[in-house]
Amino acid sequence: MKATQISFPDQNRISATYSRIREYIRRTPVLEMQGADFALGPFPLFLKLELLQHTGSFKARGAVTNLMCRQVPPAGVVAASGGNHGVAVAFAAKKFNVPARIFVPSVCPAAKRQLIQGYGADLAIAGDRYADALEASKLWQEESGAMPIHAFDQHETLLGQGTVGLEFEEQVPDLDTLFVAVGGGGLIGGIAAWYQKRIAVIAVEPQAAPTLARALEAGRPVDADAGGIAADSLAPRRVGELMFPIAQKYVRKVVLVSDDEIRNAQDLLWKSARIAAEPGGAAALAALTSGIYRPRNGERVGVLICGGNTTAVDFSR
């Protein structure tokens, strides 16, 4: 595969990326609802169902972009992940017929481990948190010569995730406010780079893993707590260096939600729309269902439902 020179993400580069990866990803649907469907106020609510993306999360976009825009060595690729990024890299590696080794921490759910192995990648368990898996992946990269695909701190990853914003704006061109869950920040970094200040982009983080909140307070990425119910997807310890200046410039504010509020959002999604989201996938909605953010009457609100790799719904019963 021929390498392509990539610069800092902006609208033109995100558009070019979308044109390039379009045939390998799904254009995920938007579900139009009302705040009243969740016992909230009278405002239009638009759910971007990125949990219906290949591999069950938005991560497929960034993984495919990396494999299409970088020179992959014979040793293949290596990635560290709490789960969803690993699934996406395994999917993309299978699509382009290259070897992949994925390092995950012990908190990675069984459902995500099975998906990684199902796509044919080698799976390695390393430590208890994402940071442990990342260190193990770096050692493997040095030993093997494989190309590392970072879950969030990589230009190609940001460009791929930015295509979510492009799609959402095409589908709902007059949003006022958009809520996006944050782990390492690749998703909100790409989306904020797309929207810039045309709408209010609001970050949502677990109280147990306030990576972006702590970084904005400190003026730079710093370590934060890395726990909570969404630790497999929203607890990388610190946000990426590449996304941070984007967040400083274009993210309106950060909202913190508790584990109980995330669980409640999951429950309400299932009851109101029969959407089975994983904790990280429902976190953005929790900013609304918790009452922490109260939209004004008529405010057009978007929420990214970013992942659905969960076994919470048991159809065997």
What topology, given as strand order, has the largest sheet?
A: 1-2-10-7-8-9
Gross morphology: globular
CATH topology of the largest domain: Rossmann fold
Distance, first to last CA = 46 Å
How much beta, percentage-wise?
15-25%
If helices are DSSP runs of H or I spanning 4 or more residues, what is the number of helices? 12
- Mind telling me which CATH architecture of the largest domain this is? 3-Layer(aba) Sandwich
Order of helices and strands: HEEHEHEHEHEHEHEHHHEHHE
Average of the residue pLDDT scores: 91
Helix content: 40-55%
Write the layout of secondary structure elements.
Blueprint: H1 11-21, E1 30-34, E2 44-49, H2 59-69, E3 77-80, H3 84-95, E4 100-104, H4 110-118, E5 122-125, H5 130-144, E6 147-148, H6 155-171, E7 177-181, H7 186-195, E8 200-206, H8 211-218, H9 231-234, H10 244-250, E9 251-257, H11 259-273, H12 279-289, E10 301-305
Helix pairs in contact: 1-6, 2-3, 2-6, 3-4, 6-7, 7-10, 11-12
